[in-house]
């Protein structure tokens, strides 16, 4: 079967790792799978032989979103997949619309977050609610029992299409030496090191880890990831006098994340919300 996965933005983050794992699993079963991103955000997937981009930059405003949707529909019409799997709020909406315009018969959406009621995300949730209720996609995957419960008040026709597949992570395929891993990422050798991964955002709450350094004078923290809170984290660390014990290694490609984790003595994760537990 020929399958195309639709993601919103190309970057090394959790949602993209899920489609990576799904693609790997489907290819192992003999299916032809490609992942198309609405736009390129970082270089994380530039060398991925199974990745494509509709736009090279983030679409701006309604004209940009229309251009991305039309471009996606053209991509899907040219690819002629048997099925389309969509991810994230924008990916679900634009992916479903693009797949329908391209005449794709089998469409699977994914819900990895609770529906919202305010602002742009609230509007997107209402659009998804309508699409799922009328059956624009045939199946709707939720990543945990908690996520599924957030849709309990949705129409029965929407909930009838829901399928629960709990998220997980693959086991590393090899072992990594701690000293070598620290050297590879420019991390200090003879210190107690906590590591963490994820986009640098307010919701991921890495600032709590930086704040903890003020009370743990013998501990260092290494963060893998990029995002809008980077400068705020650095400024906060400097204001607390702990900047020398905060190590920002930047975006780590999926192929090297286990190597990064091997550099730590402990994994610390301060995220304020994770739907899969």
Give a concise summary.
The chain is of the alpha/beta class. The chain is 37% helix and 21% strand. It folds into 2 domains: 2-164, Glycogen Phosphorylase B (Rossmann fold, 3-Layer(aba) Sandwich); 178-267, Rossmann fold.
Task: Write a structural description.
This protein has 277 residues and is α/β, with parallel strands linked by helices. It has two domains: 2-164, Glycogen Phosphorylase B (Rossmann fold), CATH 3.40.50; 178-267, Rossmann fold, CATH 3.40.50. 37% of the residues lie in helices and 21% in strands. It is built from ten helices and eleven strands. It has helices spanning 14-28, 61-79, 89-101, 119-134, 145-149, 156-159, 178-184, 206-213, 230-240, 257-261; strands at 2-10, 32-40, 51-55, 83-86, 106-111, 139-142, 162-164, 192-197, 219-224, 246-250, 266-267. A seven-stranded parallel sheet has the order 3-2-1-4-5-6-7, with helices on both faces. It has a four-stranded parallel sheet with strand order 10-9-8-11. The longest helix has 19 residues, at 61-79. The two termini are 32 Å apart. The model has no long low-confidence stretch (mean pLDDT 93).
Low-confidence stretches: none
CA radius of gyration is: 20 Å
The total of helices stands at 10
CATH superfamily of the largest domain: Glycogen Phosphorylase B
Q: From the structure provided, what is the oligomeric state, counting identical versus distinct chains?
A: single chain
Per CATH, the class of the largest domain reads Alpha Beta
Structural class: alpha/beta
> What's the N-to-C terminus distance?
32 Å
| SSE sequence, one letter per element | EHEEHEHEHEHHEHEHEHEHE
CATH architecture of the largest domain: 3-Layer(aba) Sandwich
How much helix is in the residues?
A: 25-40%
Shape: globular
What do we call the CATH topology of the largest domain?
Rossmann fold
What count of domains describes the coordinates?
2
């Amino acid at each position: 079967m020929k399958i195309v996965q639709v993601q919103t933005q190309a970057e090394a983050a959790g949602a993209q790792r899920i489609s990576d794992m799904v693609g790997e699993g489907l290819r192992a079963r003999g299916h032809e799978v490609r992942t198309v991103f609405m736009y390129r955000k970082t270089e994380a997937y530039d060398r991925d032989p199974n990745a494509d981009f509709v736009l090279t930059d983030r679409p701006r405003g309604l004209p940009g979103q229309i251009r991305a949707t039309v471009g996606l529909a053209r991509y899907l019409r040219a690819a002629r997949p048997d099925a389309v799997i969509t991810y994230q709020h924008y990916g679900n909406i634009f992916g479903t619309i693009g797949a329908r315009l391209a005449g794709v018969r089998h469409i699977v959406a994914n819900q990895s977050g609770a529906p919202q009621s305010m602002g742009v995300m609230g509007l997107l949730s209402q659009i998804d609610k309508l699409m799922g209720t009328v059956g624009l996609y045939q199946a709707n995957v939720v990543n945990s029992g908690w996520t599924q419960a957030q849709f309990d008040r949705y129409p029965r026709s929407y909930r009838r299409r829901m399928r629960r597949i709990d998220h997980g992570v693959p086991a590393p395929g090899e072992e990594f030496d701690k000293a070598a891993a620290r050297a590879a990422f420019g991390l200090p050798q003879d210190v107690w090191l906590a590591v963490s991964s994820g986009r640098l955002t307010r919701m991921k709450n890495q600032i709590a880890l930086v704040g903890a350094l003020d009370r743990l004078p013998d501990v260092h923290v290494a963060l893998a990831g990029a995002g809008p809170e980077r400068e705020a984290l650095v400024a906060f660390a400097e204001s607390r006098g702990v900047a020398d014990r905060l190590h920002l290694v930047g975006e780590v490609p999926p192929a090297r994340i286990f190597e990064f984790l091997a550099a730590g003595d402990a994994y610390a994760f301060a995220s304020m919300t994770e739907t899969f537990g």
